[in-house]
Specification:
12 strands; about 425 residues; four-stranded antiparallel β-sheet; 7 helices
Length: about 425
């Protein structure tokens, strides 16, 4: 997913190619996800931008926008696979394979395309194969864009909001929360723009373990986290997400081998790389550098309260809840296994037993306590070895375990 640096790269290209030009042709393809889920449509978008001049472009974290000559202004979010392409320009943050094939235009998976009126003409298009991107219109003055939804619900940007995201601000925020620190910095309601790889780079640079709870760090550790956050984000943005310009000692250079055959499992200095799941995301960690100095999440998969305070994680939270339910059921079965059980060989049913012996059975139903009736039974079949002590008080379980088979458990006098 494009993060703060990749979005900065696109804003750079928008300023370079579209700012100062009038959009003479705007063509949009309707998409119920990309437009519809944020309250607009392709037709409305097309009508609102056609004939208008692009005055500027801006960014807050993972969101970016174009300021038009009059409202409304378009605000974009790339989602997982969205991107802005400019014909003839290399806007991607990775080096594409060289090919002799002519560039196809409009590109595959395009959601809208624009063309400027003045020479040299510029053609640009917004693409998204997986349709998680969002394109909306904000009807307000240009200077109020950041005060409207969804930008106003997001935290400060580590690059453009250094006056807000101070060391004191971070200390206060972290001390009020009790979540794994990486989950905290990934939450866009806390800080804008930090995604998975940037978060791992910050944790590694600060020498902090991503699972440790936010309210367990010392003031000195939070100061280091603040320094690392500003350094990593500013360096990545200044490089316009070009990884070839990243420092050689960054984790980014070595973290992409998980699951690949013959991939390196250590840094060049021999330090081991491990992978954990924190805040619902895979995290690359160097244990010899990122040591735990306080309590951490009980389970790296975050079944308990890893994300209880993290907003915008509804699906991840529902998944964790399901896992917790499964874990509870497993624990119940383990508790039941502590009771006396009989497992007959080859899982054969024991013969039916009809008794006519005087016995007292202590029947303890789920609610209340039943009387102890005397039952006249006559034994007509030979008791199996597991039930020879039939005259003893036998625990009668009236409530079966839902969805699970009890192999050979004595229940209601039957095996």
């Amino acid at each position: 997913m494009p993060e703060i640096a990749e979005v900065a790269r696109i804003v750079h290209h928008l300023r370079k190619s579209l700012v100062g030009k009038t959009l003479s042709v705007v063509t949009a393809q309707d998409d119920a996800n990309v437009y519809g889920k944020v309250g607009t449509s392709a037709a409305e978008f097309q009508k609102s931008l056609t004939g208008k001049k692009v005055l500027s472009a801006g960014q807050q974290g993972k969101y970016f926008w174009m300021i038009m000559s009059s409202p409304p202004h378009p605000v974009f979010h790339f989602g997982m696979t969205g991107w802005f392409q400019i014909r003839g320009e290399h806007t991607a943050y990775y080096r594409p394979k060289e090919t002799d094939e002519e560039e196809v235009w409009p590109p595959k998976f395009w959601k809208f395309s624009v063309e400027t009126d003045s020479e040299p003409k510029v053609e640009a298009a917004f693409t998204d194969p997986r349709r998680f991107a969002r394109i909306r219109l904000v009807d307000c003055a240009a200077e109020d864009i950041r005060n409207t939804t969804p930008l106003k619900e997001n935290g400060p940007d580590p690059v453009i909001d250094k006056d807000i995201l101070t060391e004191e601000w971070l200390v206060e925020k972290m001390k009020k929360r009790h979540v794994p620190v990486k989950a905290f910095i990934l939450d866009q309601a806390n800080i804008s723009g930090i995604g998975n790889w940037v978060g791992d780079e910050i944790m590694y640079n600060a020498k902090l373990h991503p699972e440790q709870y936010t309210d367990t760090f010392s003031a000195e550790q939070i100061k280091q986290l603040h320094t690392s956050m500003l350094y990593v984000c500013q360096t990545a943005v200044d490089s316009l997400a070009d990884s070839s310009k990243f420092p050689d000692d960054w984790l980014f250079k070595h973290r992409w081998g998980k699951g690949k055959k013959d991939a390196a499992t250590t840094l060049p200095n021999g330090a081991k790389l491990t992978f954990l799941t924190v805040g619902g995301r895979t995290s690359c960690v160097v244990p010899s550098v990122q040591k735990k100095t306080g309590p951490v999440a009980a389970d790296v998969n975050g079944k308990a309260d890893d994300m209880e305070d993290t907003k915008k994680a509804g699906k991840a939270k529902a998944s964790k809840k399901r896992k917790a339910v499964i874990k509870e059921e497993e624990d119940e079965v383990e508790d039941e296994d502590d009771e006396e059980t009989v497992t007959p060989a080859k899982k054969k049913r024991a013969p039916t037993i009809k008794k006519e012996v005087k016995t007292e059975e202590a029947v303890t139903p789920k609610k209340g306590r039943a009387k102890k009736p005397k039952v006249e039974e006559q034994e007509t079949a030979k008791s199996p070895p597991a039930t020879k002590k039939a005259s003893k008080k036998v625990k009668v379980e009236e409530e079966p375990v839902s969805g699970r088979r009890r192999s050979g458990r004595i229940t209601n006098g039957k095996v």
